[in-house]
Amino acid sequence: MVKILFEDNHLIAAFKKSGQTVQPEPNKPLSLEEEVKAYIKEKYQKEGAVFLGVIHRLDMPVSGVVLFARTSKALARMNELFHDRLVGKFYEAWVENTPPNTEGLLTHYLKRDENKNFTKAFVSEVKQADKAQLKYKLLKKSANKTLLSIELLTGRKHQIRAQLSAMGCPIVGDLKYGASRPFSDGMIALQSCKLTFNHPVKNEAVVIASEGINYLF
């Protein structure tokens, strides 16, 4: 059953499991979008198609908070908020090794290889690369693993995975970006834990949070 984290007449947020896609893809399990549509259809006894606007996405192996729009007006306004970087995006990640500092700002220039579905992080500016920034803070250590809280300041494809790997701290289980071993189910220890923003219709502060990834280790 889908886990709903927030719901009103304009927006709905749900928890995406690792290994699940946000939108339907061929030969993939039931997407979060399909689950949320089924939930709305059943709860409100809706006939016909259910409108659900996809505002943002998470990588398939990443778990956590995903926000959808229930109206076209909310979708357009939330798209503006994301575009203008007026949405707070907070993650937690277990990483291998220990960062050089207990907290810091990472700035890289990311270049995509779409054929390999891979993002390369450079410390200095290169052609056709996008500037990417995130803040991190050490929460706790366990054996050779470290739990970080992350505030994503820009929204690039595979940004957190590439930047933490470039720092020498690949996300646990993320073999693509340098982890020593994968999880058996293909997940990685990265979770979207919180979104903060001003409601696009009610103009009220909204905080949507999940339980965090602390339970993994």
Number of strands: 11
- Determine the CATH topology of the largest domain: Pseudouridine synthase
Structure annotation, total helices: 3
Q: What is the CATH-assigned architecture of the largest domain?
A: 2-Layer Sandwich
Question: How would you sum up the global shape?
Answer: globular
Return the CATH class of the largest domain: Alpha Beta
Order of helices and strands: EEHEEHEEEEEHEE
Describe this structure in words.
By secondary structure, this protein is an alpha+beta fold. The protein has two domains: 84 residues, Pseudouridine synthase (2-Layer Sandwich), CATH 3.30.2350; 101 residues, Pseudouridine synthase (2-Layer Sandwich). Helices cover 15% and strands 36% of the residues. The chain contains three helices and eleven strands, in the order E-E-H-E-E-H-E-E-E-E-E-H-E-E. Strands 1, 2, 3, 4, 5, 6, 7, 8, 9, 10 and 11 form an eleven-stranded mixed beta sheet that branches. The two termini are 25 Å apart. The model has no long low-confidence stretch (mean pLDDT 95).
Keywords:
3 helices; Pseudouridine synthase; alpha+beta; globular; 217 residues; 11 strands; 2 domains
